[in-house]
Amino acid sequence: MSEKRPLFRKGDQGPAVAEICDRLLRIGAITKPSNVIDETVDAAIKEFQQSRGITVDGIVGPETFRRLEEARWSLGDRILSFTPGHLIHGDDVSSLQRKLSDFGFDSGRIDGIFGKNTENAVKELQKNVGISIDGVCGPEVFKAIERLNRVVVGGTPEHYREELHHLPRRTGVSDKVVIIDPGHGGDDQGLTGHSLTESFVSADISQKVEGKLAALGTTVLLTRMTKTNQVIDEQQRAVFANNSNADLVVSIHTDSIKNSSGNGCASYYFGNEALGQKSSMGQRFANLVQSEIIKTVGLKDCRTHAKTWDLLRMTRMPAVRIEVGYLSNTNDAVKLADANVRDLIASSIAEAIISFFEPVKN
Questions:
Q1: Thinking of the domain 15-71, which architecture would CATH place it in?
Q2: What is the pTM assigned to this prediction?
Q3: Looking at the predicted structure, is the pLDDT value of residue 270 above 60?
């Protein structure tokens, strides 16, 4: 169960805020120390959140604080290694993964997390340049990277590898494991509006998707049961998906904003172009499911977008988050309150999953 952690926002002050400002200062987001979140610090927090592909709200919670900590590391600042259960996260890891990929060593998705694939890629580099093979990125590896930097021009081979990795999985849905993630749940009802809760809408659509895919022989696993008081955070959901060796993760949510005219459906995949990060297969499925929902249900097309939310980033397989409408908008809420419309959304999601795994035509 997730434990409540402090949230810091505009107007807050004190030692914890000073720590936040210190991290902003280290990465050049502000120019002088502070112990209060004033207009300048608030703007810097929002700009940082936007640059990292996380929710832009000016609130520093666990995710934003963690990303601030990651941002302060540059490649060479510390020794990097793989430790199961205590994985190293940081911008230095992203830089290492990008360089390994450019050199032709497969470190998997560029996600800033030093996992087993990254360790194996470091070992391959060590083997090829003739230094001690231990998978640890230390002084010898930094020197090797510096030498290789002079002769290797970067590209995007990791995207081609992801495509090739997906090809053998295009055998239909009957042998696949798909994680369906109903947003929020338990004591966390999520967003609310027009007598609807995000928890209810996402759970109902998820159960309908489960039924449609199970009838085709797909193994469908839900990240939470409908009736539970447990609150499960995104990191726990990602661990569940990884431990299940799933082929795809689909997270279902709704949206809500103060402006009631906001409406429509949007889909999100892992990516941050500024940091050279993207799941190409996540993007492909996001495009598929977005197209199906818009075509079938008639919601406004709010398009697909790259984000680095924990569930998208920490899963080893393609993962997509779908926000199926705005509870704050009357027209969207009326549609989502209709069980028949929720069934259409579920059918669209199921159809996109079928298309994603359909066999390649000769």
A1: Orthogonal Bundle (1.10)
A2: 0.75
A3: yes
